Hints:
alpha/beta
Amino acid sequence: xxxxxxxxxxxxxxxxxxxxxxxxxxxxxxxxxxxxxxxxxxxxxxxxxxxxxxxxxxxxxxxxxxxxxxxxxxxxxxxxxxxxxxxxxxxxxxxxxxxxxxxxxxxxxxxxxxxxxxxxxxxxxxxxxxxxxxxxxxxxxxxxxxxxxxxxxxxxxxxxxxxxxxxxxxxxxxxxxxxxxxxxxxxxxxxxxxxxxxxxxxxxxxxxxxxxxxxxxxxxxxxxxxxxxxxxxxxxxxxxxxxxxxxxxxxxxxxxxxxxxxxxxxxxxxxxxxxxxxxxxxxxxxxxxxxxxxxxxxxxxxxxxxxxxxxxxxxxxxxxxxxxxxxxxxxxxxxxxxxxxxxxxxxxxxxxxxxxxxxxxxxxxxxxxxxxxxxxxxxxxxxxxxxxxxxxxxxxxxxxxxxxxxxxxxxxxxxxxxxxxxxxxxxxxxxxxxxxxxxxxxxxxxxxxxxxxxxxxxxxxxxxxxxxxxxxxxxxx
Length: 477
């Protein structure tokens, strides 16, 4: 849902160090995270830096393949589009709209054909203006956009499908599978998730994941040559903005607190979606259905970390204390109804272990699938970006793109100290230590200004809380 920052993406031009628009006297204002492996001035030789230190490529023919992809501005889809088009694949990409950084990037890619529109239809538009299309299950007056779906697969041989909760996810997922089979798709990769209730009758279903599980079962039933990927928790989910579940709340002392219902010592799968989904999915396509078909499931995660370990790793990367609190999910902003129901069920599910981490249900539902992480994922892609590297190199850039300024505090303090030493400070209400009037705990804008942001039809979809970076990314995509 939010616009991504170009600095962390593998196949984009190398960005310059961060510039602060309000810097005076023409000087650049930099912070300690500016010199990353994505900076021209960086001395690092990170194996994840695909822009430099890359060995010469052998001549190779361009692949004569087209990939059908939906929700193309989501993190998973956009990651695949970048790497696939960079090596010559063509993409037929469905986009809900053309607004935002990622949608613009996709739409202007010469190897992408864009199909603009929703995967759902409003069968009685005048009667369904205010219908919440994010509710789980059948929705009165909301149908499936069969025409767009049929056009999506025209001329395609491969498909990467990551459905979301806009419209009836199960009906849309089944319609996509049917259309792919009619089109003769050779390899169908579906981004699925488990229905925990199917593994243990005492475990509740997570509504959004249960819909994906039903789609997965349908894809198997109709005999598509398919692979199912289960993605771990996105490193990119962390934000100082008050989004529920993965908000790292900025404290007055500069540290963060992450509060969630996961047991502090229970292992969870982690993944950098923007950096690592694309290369992994591309390798699945290259290996083909002979290796990964017949309904095989892949746990796509490169680290298994407990919440306490994740905070320790994140703290090392960002250079500030990060503390975990085992507690309920706090919802401080308006969110889509479908996501609200998902969070309520998630809190119930992962609270079942109480004080025993061994009793917490596996994130992927199936302990055997979880035990393959990260071994199988590393067979697909050996250059993942771990949580520590993400926290060090990308998180500060994304935060600044969202209008936050904590990464510049050290520079501000140093400038204020020099100002005082030079005898230019002091007195009155305008000293160097005075808070900017629209800085609230590190925010560059108020929540009231970010709330109620609308891009047309989103009023009926509950998307009323948006930050700058996330404007055009799909929720949970």
